[in-house]
Amino acid sequence: MSDVPSAPNTHAIGLYINGEQHHLQVPPWLTLLDLLRDELDLVGTKKGCDHGQCGACTVLRNGRRVNACLTLAIMCDGDELTTIEGLAHGDRLHPLQQAFIAHDAFQCGYCTPGQICSAVGMAREGRARSRAQIQEAMSGNLCRCGAYSNIVAAVEEALPQMGGPRP
Amino acid sequence: MNSPLSGQPLDRVDGPAKVTGRARYAGEYPEPGLLYGSVVSGNVARGRIRRIDCDAALAVPGVVEVLHHLNRPKMAGDDESYEDADAAEGKPFRPLFNDRVLYSGQPLALVVAESLEVARYAGSLVRIEIDAEAHRTDLFAELDNAHDAPAELPGPRGDFAGAFEAAPFKVDATYSTPVEHHNPMEPHASTVIYNADGSLQVHDKTQGTQNSQDYLVKVFDLPKERVRVCAAYVGGAFGSGLRPQYQLTLAAMAALRLQRSVRVTLTRQQMFTFGYRPRTVQRLRLGADAQGRLLAISHEATGQTSRFEDFTEHLVEWSGMLYRCDNVALGYRLVPLDVYTPLDMRAPGAASGVIALECAMDELAQALSLDPLELRRVNFADSNGNEGKPYSSKALLDCYARGALRFGWHSRDPRPRSMQDQGELVGWGMAGGVWEAMQMKASARARLDADGHLWVSSATTDIGTGTYTVMTQIAADAFGMALADVTFQLGDSSLPTAPLQGGSFTVSSVGPAVRQACQALRGKLVAWAKGRYPELAGIDAGAFVVRDGQLQVAGKAYALEAMDVRVDAEPSARRQGFASATHSAVFVEVRIDEALGTLRVSRVVSAVAAGRVINPKTARSQILGGVVWGLGMALQEETQIDHGLGRYMNHNLAEYHIPVNADIGEIEVIFVDEPDDIVNELGSKGVGEIGVVGVAAAVANAVCHATGRRVRDFPLTVEKLLG
């Protein structure tokens, strides 16, 4: 082969992740998901499909929920990111984390960080008022253990404490 | 002593780790200098590798090695070395062993690089030329090539043919179920840490750390003490982790060759390149008298398997044990195809086999103009006809009664298409479920620290089932201690032996070992204390309490000493005279818009008899999850293969449909009281499988009630409802 391919050059970006500033050199092909997991050891953000089909990698980018697997790291220069590791204050869990435990809204736990981040983002969107609306707005996050009923119960309980509308 | 923790709906002890992202799964352990492996998959169903060209891949900066069948490290050459605790009969698949291509999606090379991106990219540059051979992947086209499954089926009893012939009411129907893939949310991954002394520390996605350890020891001829396999958290498995999967072989192979730590994580697409629930075709014949009493049952099934292994599951046995019938014939055949070997998948065999039985029962009820629930009551069996043994307990009649009451079954109008609401057809259907209540040998260790903390351990796993929590409850009760003072450790091959986590037998196998170990340790503590502190000699053992880091007896505190006990537990001889099973009754409401062909399952009531439930909260979650699986089986799940290519076409989560949140209506779970002091000392039967069994049949029966249309080919997708 005449033109041997080479790894791409890196670019400097700055990110605020869970309130902490990071200055990073990233290749353009690096997804936000792989940056978080492999470079920063923030493995709470999960990779379930790498194609934006399962929602396990959901994080909050400037307050909006996004699939980190469909987001390139270099797109996030200057952004504020919140991952599952950034929701609790020390030992004090976020109300949604507490509600997930109380309602047993997970089994294996692998989709859980994405479910929780997604619900936090959903609360901010302010469009999920009824149970059916919560179910619709949470349907981008697959749970193979089938904990959906409990996820909805947890979200319903925690929504009022998240500044979202009371369902 | 306080009221027992067993039986209380406690929160998961691993909950905080899981909701904060602290729980690490197999592919999430960091290691300095870790290399990333990317699997290069084939796309030919059968053939031989003619040439493999890695030059371009190796030229990419950051690529360390490309492993394939010509340059791999030495591996065992005998089949036995590849057989694991859940192996099917035959010759197990050997990754990168030789030039043979046995199925589409087969791993053909592993690119190892300094970063995941480089490995994946370089993988796209590996050129593999294959001499393709004709392949066969369609079960239905190959039914003539079936052979008897190497399964120990119960022999025929009575005279099925004669009784069926003479029966006044009959059903003769054929049902089919598709290939389905487990698709746990966590893709399979193995991180193999290569220690300075050459030993391997492995984090594997598995339902049996010792199974993975044994496999590596045999395949790579390693001393057992130099391989340790851990699985602290498993992101779902559902059977996919019962056998060591090829990412483990490849990661270990690369680590041994390069003497470096390596991680291999499969892509979602590659999650469709190993075991799955096999496609089946099943013929059910039922004969009954005018009262609905079953006179004859025949269940003949054919399933697919690979050309290298004969995978069997308990597909037809249920038809010989759920109901009372004197004339029963069961048959099970396999068709080898150019595909990978199927693999146990949640309620293996029962999930598919009971579909046929319970749909046929519904058809029989229609033929008899009898209520489907009444038909089942009429045929209640208090003994297992396959084994000729009474059930140790079987509260199925209570499941029928409580489930029906809760669902409102009595107000069902039996006529098809008779119930409508807001322009939608409403259908109510029901089905029964059954799963064996097994117990395996298991061991556990209990250790009390001098500071009063109880550590209990066994090499089982927690695939989301709640093992951490339930074992902690059992241990705390058995030792007589607060939950917070007990830690249960699992997921480590160096811990006392435990069976694979599968078949709903973890609580009933590991639970007794944990209980016995803690009881024995308590006995040891009391004996020690009476020797160490003479004033305690005459005091009743029940007065000894470990609390606040001390031994407390009759209001006085004493210093502790560390001590431990290890126990091996096995099923009691008493069990042998009995059959033991979990049962369920599932009631389903569907709502169908006939113009659009859309179907919603608006309500499910699942009433379960599973013996004593240790943790109603986590057990309920197991049933909820099982019901969701059943809904997926009924309506959505099907891995579709292009038989021309011999390749799965919907191998991703956008096209392989599983239920999403909005698909799920109300689900109510009822655990009926079912005391059982025979099944095991805890009286628990396990709940991982029973939740899924019967659900898909109940949905199909509800659809038939709603529409008058009997769909026998699963899943019940929109074109079958419209067509």
From TrEMBL, chain A:
Organism: Pseudomonas bharatica CSV86
Keyword entries, A-Z: 2Fe-2S, Iron, Iron-sulfur, Metal-binding, Oxidoreductase
Listed Pfam families: Fer2, Fer2_2
GO molecular function terms noted in the UniProt entry: 2 iron, 2 sulfur cluster binding; metal ion binding; oxidoreductase activity, acting on the aldehyde or oxo group of donors
Cited InterPro entries: 2Fe-2S-bd, 2Fe-2S-bd_dom_sf, 2Fe-2S_ferredoxin-like_sf, 2Fe-2S_ferredoxin-type, 2Fe2S_fd_BS, Aldehyde_Oxdr_Iron-Sulfur, Beta-grasp_dom_sf
UniProt name for this protein: (2Fe-2S)-binding protein
Organism classification: Bacteria, Pseudomonadati, Pseudomonadota, Gammaproteobacteria, Pseudomonadales
Automatic annotation (TrEMBL), chain B:
Gene Ontology MF annotations: iron ion binding; oxidoreductase activity
Organism encoding this protein: Pseudomonas bharatica CSV86
Classification lineage: Bacteria, Pseudomonadati, Pseudomonadota, Gammaproteobacteria, Pseudomonadales
Protein origin, superkingdom: Bacteria
Coiled coil: none
The protein, known as: Xanthine dehydrogenase family protein molybdopterin-binding subunit
Gene3D superfamilies tied to this protein: Aldehyde oxidase/xanthine dehydrogenase, a/b hammerhead (3.90.1170.50), Aldehyde oxidase/xanthine dehydrogenase, molybdopterin binding domain (3.30.365.10)
